Each structure stands twice: as structure tokens, then as C-alpha cells.
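Technical note accompanying the year-one report. For the benefit of new consortium partners, we illustrate the data format agreed upon in the data management plan: each record pairs a sequence with a C-alpha cell string. No post-processing was applied to the example shown here.
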Amino acid sequence: MTKTPSGRMRRTILEWLKDPALHFPASRRRDLAATGVTARAVAAKLGVPRRTAVAHLDFLTRLGVLRTRRIRCRTHYRRDEVRIAEVARMFEKGW
């Protein structure tokens, strides 16, 4: 997941989502840490089309390291810290 350009991009997204308030514009109505960040915000930060950001975010969601939440017509993404810790432990043990 981290040796390819796509892997680096996904790793960057995960890093940004550790502290979304630091990396993304503040929302007037929402706490980014609690609700998550939209694909549009991730795409703007990466400088890629929204579809590209959605593909990466969906991949990370299928892996289980991101959680989604629908608010109105948008999907918000945030880290699943428990799952990330589980995956890290699996890699430390060598599977």
C-alpha cells in the first residue's frame, strides 16, 4: 500500500485525517474530527479530480481503516483508529 504512487497518496490521506482541522479548511457547522472530511476537500488538497480521491477513499474504507458517515448528500470520511491499530499489529507480527 505504500510503495506505489497510489500507496503514498493513501498514506498521505491517512496522515491528514489524523488531525483534519490542521490540514483542511474549518467548517462553520461541523467538527472535522468528529464528522470527517468530504472527498471534495481531499481532492482539493491533493490537487486531483474528485473521482480520484473517491477511489482512494473507497479503497481505504474497504480495508476498514476509514469510516464513513452520510451527512445530507455528502459522504464524510474519518479514520478508524481501532482498525488501524489492529492492522499495524498484524504487520508487526509478520502476519
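Partners are asked to follow this layout when depositing records. The two ends are 15 Å apart (CA to CA).
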